Amino acid sequence: MSDPQCKALLTAVNLTKRFGGLAANQGVNLSLERGKLHALLGPNGAGKSTCINMLSGDLPLSEGRILYEGHDISRLTAHQRSRIGIGRSYQRTNIFPQFTVFENCRLAAQSRQQRAWKIFSSAAVDFAPEKERAMAAIEETGLRDRCSRQAGTLSHGEQRQLEIAMVLATQAQVLLLDEPLAGMGSEESAKMVELLRRLRASHAILLVEHDMDAVFSVADTITVMVNGVVLESGSPLQIRASADVQRAYLGHEGSFHV
Amino acid sequence: MNFPYSLWSKLILLAALLAFPALDMPFYAELVAKTLLFGLFAMSLGLLVGYTGLASLGHAAYFGIATYVVALMTPGYEAASFWLTFPAAVLISAASALVVGLFVLRTKGIYFIMVTLAFAQMAFYLFHDTALGGGSDGIYLNARPDATLFGSKLIDLDKPLHLYYLIVLVLVLGYLFLQRILQSPFGRVLAGIKSNEHRMRSMGYPTFRYKLAAFTIAGGIAGAAGYLYAVLFGFITPELLSWHHSADVLLMVILGGMGSLGGAFAGAVAFIAMQEIFSSFTKHWQLVMGVVIVVVVLFLPGGLVAIPRRARAAFFGGASDE
Predict the structure, then answer these.
(1) pLDDT tens digits, residue range A169-223?
(2) Which of A49, A55, A79 to mutate to test the interface with B (most CBs of B within 10 A)?
């Protein structure tokens, strides 16, 4: 495992997705390492969500390969990828609104247990490992005092935190986070960025995000996509300096300040 | 607050059921037994509709298949063994549900409703149009199964009282079994699938397998109800597998309240009671019943089981849960 070639936990090679004649992703290469946060930038419609959906197994690939710890996982389903350690959060909050915060996380943690198939034991009875993992995820994301609240009644920002907590409770090694800061106030954003920094130490993270300040402050590597292809990939400094990126962003949104 | 109330109501109901034969009203005894079997049947569908989010319109197939299993295993006038035919009927119903589930659970929403209906119609025509089970005329069960155990005739299904208590026993066991499942980790997964199946998959649950397990269990329990129905009435027609029958049980679940076993049971009781009452004074009883169901669905979205809770909220000013 000391081989530098094997350092990447998740590698995507020539990721391509065609919807009819439209190539939503064309030849995208990405690599995620533990301890590193890789951000994916690009204007709306650049193919960022398509890319995450292919990595998580929500969308099948048209072409290309995905390697996890060196194994080809391109054909695994979404639930199989979750089981080997690839977790994802969603751009639009995707929780169990009628369940409590704790039950949302407990259910996520339970997915790692064979116990999920036991039809004669009680889910409410103490079962230390999954409860501990659920509580750890809740603590980590700062939702401790929201534990027994119904998830649907949380504020938007708290629901975004719960999204992440559920991924953590599955003990994912790779975190695919689709716009975790979307719609958050500045204070909540700051807390989320803090959380991303902490999580980076022990996970490999892919972050899709529109908030430039946040991205440039936490990312180790940034990949910029436009129209389904990778325009540029490199360190935040390189990306800031790239003339191509400047042009693409000024052309599309005009909001990329350096 | 909630728990003792619901526990008490169940214990009182059970006591009433156990004491009922003492009133010695044979006509009503058969009606009550039939109602209990529909209650069990409705609870099995409740597992799918209320807890897993699968609105099957073909659930009568598994009830009906079990009725034919007991009839076909009793070809002449010789009684077949209860200990053989009952497990066989439950297993064959469950296996049929497993096979059908492999296909129908790949679909969602309106398509799921349509394919469950289509499979049930196939089963209906299998018995209706072939000589397998007497065709459209149906088939008589000439001898009730023999429940002799280790040479002792402790349970004699030819005695209405024995059959009645067996039905109560199977109902209670079926209820406890479903209740146990729903509180288990497996039950929580089903609730998660109902709430947000996509997220369940992305959290690592192979949701198809869980839904298939629920569909199979529901089919097996419907089979237990169907078996006892055949033994109770001794006459089986393909109508038991018809889509009307599937629609009736779905209406029972909706009427009583989805998302609780008690609701499915209450729906079955209300449905059959209305059938008896309305048909006693009008030929157009289905019209009256239709109106009642529409009113319940419109004004009582929680179904009949929501009535006590709403009444308490109204009288004591407690917060209603809406």
Answers:
(1) 999 999 999 999 988 888 889 999 999 999 999 999 999 998 888 899 999 999 9
(2) A79
- Residues of chain A with C-beta less than 8 angstroms from the C-beta of B198: 94
pLDDT of residue A107: 94
Predicted confidence at residue A257, as pLDDT, reads: 47
Given CB atoms, is A60 within the 8 Å cutoff of chain B?
no
Of A87, A94, A116, the CB nearest to B198: A94
- Least CB-CB distance to B183: which of A83, A95, A122? A122
A96:B207 CB<8 A: no
Q: How confident is the prediction for chain A on average, in pLDDT? A: 88
**Residue B108 phi, psi (nearest 5):** -135, 160
Residue B188 contacts A, CB cutoff 8 Å: yes
pLDDT at residue A60 greater than cutoff 90:
yes
pLDDT at B123: 93
| Secondary structure of chain B as H, E, C letters | CHHHHHHHHHHHHHHHHHHHHHHCCHHHHHHHHHHHHHHHHHHHHHHHHHHHCCCCCCCHHHHHHHHHHHHHCCCCCCCCEHHHHHHHHHHHHHHHHHHHHHHHCCCCHHHHHHHHHHHHHHHHHHHHHCHHHCHHHCEECCCCCECCECCECCCCCCCHHHHHHHHHHHHHHHHHHHHHHHHCHHHHHHHHHHHHHHHHHHCCCCHHHHHHHHHHHHHHHHHHHHHHHHHHHCEECHHHHCHHHHHHHHHHHHHHCCCCHHHHHHHHHHHHHHHHHHHHHCCCHHHHHHHHHHHHHHHCCCCCCHHHHHHHHHHHCCCCCC
Beta pairing partners, B136: none
- By Cβ distance, the residue of A78, A96, A120 closest to B201 is A78
The residue written with tokens 């699938």 in the block is B193
Residues in A touching B203 (Cβ below 8 Å): 79, 82, 87, 107-108, 111, 166, 170
Q: Does A122 touch chain B (CB under 8 A)?
A: yes
Residues 52-91 of B with CB under 8 A from A: none
Q: Poorest-confidence range of A241-255, B6-20, B39-53?
A: A241-255
Name all domains of chain A by residue range, CATH numbers in brackets.
Answer: 1-85+174-188+203-258 (3.40.50.300), 95-172 (no CATH)
Over the stretch A100-146, which tens digit does the pLDDT of each residue have?
A: 999 999 999 999 886 566 766 776 666 778 899 999 999 999 999 99
Domain boundaries, chain B: 24-242
Using the Cβ of B173 and the Cβ atoms of chain A, whether some distance falls under 8 Å is answered with: no
